[in-house]
Amino acid sequence: QSALTQPASVSGSPGESITISCTGTSSDIGNYKYVSWYQQHPGRAPKLLISDVTKRPSGISNRFSGSKSGNTASLTISGLQAEDEADYFCSSYTTTTTFLVFGGGTKLTVL
Amino acid sequence: QVQLVQSGAEVKTPGASVKVSCKASAYSFSNEYIHWVRQAPGQGFEWMGLVNPSNGATSYAEMFQGRVAMTRDTSTTTFYMDLSSLRPDDTAVYSCARGKIVGGMDVWGQGTTVTVSS
Fold it and tell me: Between β-strands A9-12 and A106-110, what pairing exists: parallel, antiparallel or unpaired?
């Protein structure tokens, strides 16, 4: 069982927007601005989409955006495209028995 | 281009040790931490620890303390993760990833499958 909670799946049609949530606690997301989001296609290494809650690395489309409210972080993908179909997972700095915690991942299906 | 290339798949028996390598290329070796994470079948990622390439300092997740060692060889720009006393539930894909001490990991290795089975 992952430390951060994500929905198992979400879906949307091309052109639509979807939001994936990532819920933690005051030991991680709630009190720190170190939330990251990753995209992973089957058989491929994860790709960093968002760091520090809202920052997009160079080369990442502005269709991807991050936010945080309380103990929950969110990834929004606007203008859905077929190639966005992938697994998405979040991570956060934590002050528990480890340093980073991850969500269980969310499978995005583009209808 | 910037990349991390890991060693190949391993099959181990319970109680054995495994050493996974991660060779860094095309970037300044000392500027970014290397994290090690793993993903068991059907599970989310699990952070194992990190190493500071400039001085070799390490930080490990509590659950791996005493069983894991992360090192680096500056002459070959290669990082190593050694996990001992393997159990069947250590079966997972082990990955190295580059990043700040906190914050996102922007370059990942391709992953190394470690299977522990009698």
Answer: parallel
Query: Which chain B residues are within 8 Å of A32, Cβ to Cβ?
Result: 102
A24 touches chain B (CB under 8 A): no
Is residue A46 within 8 angstroms of chain B, CB to CB?
yes
Read off the pLDDT of residues B66-99 as tens digits, 9 standing for 90 and up: 999 999 999 999 999 999 999 999 999 999 999 9
- Dihedral of CA A89/A94/A98/A99: which sign? positive
From the list A32, A38, A97, the residue facing B63 with the nearest CB is A97
Instruction: Please give the Cα distance from B12 to B115 (Å, whole number).
Output: 6
Give the C-alpha separation, B114 to B1, whole Å: 27
Residues of A in contact with B102 (CB under 8 A): 32, 34, 93, 99-100
Of residues A59, A55, A45, the one with CA closest to residue A89: A45
Tokens representing residue B29 in the block: 């070796």
pLDDT tens digits for range B63-74: 999 999 999 999
- CB–CB contact A105 B44 (8 Å): yes
Whether residue A102 and residue B44 make contact (CB cut-off 8 A), yes or no, is yes
Q: For residues A18 and A78, what is the distance between their CA atoms, to the nearest angstrom?
A: 7
Cβ proximity of A107 and A7 under 8 Å? no
B12 in contact with chain A, both atoms CB, cutoff 8 A: no
Q: Angle at CA B97, nearest 5°, toward A30 and B100?
A: 55
Q: How far is A96 from chain B (nearest CA, A)?
A: 9
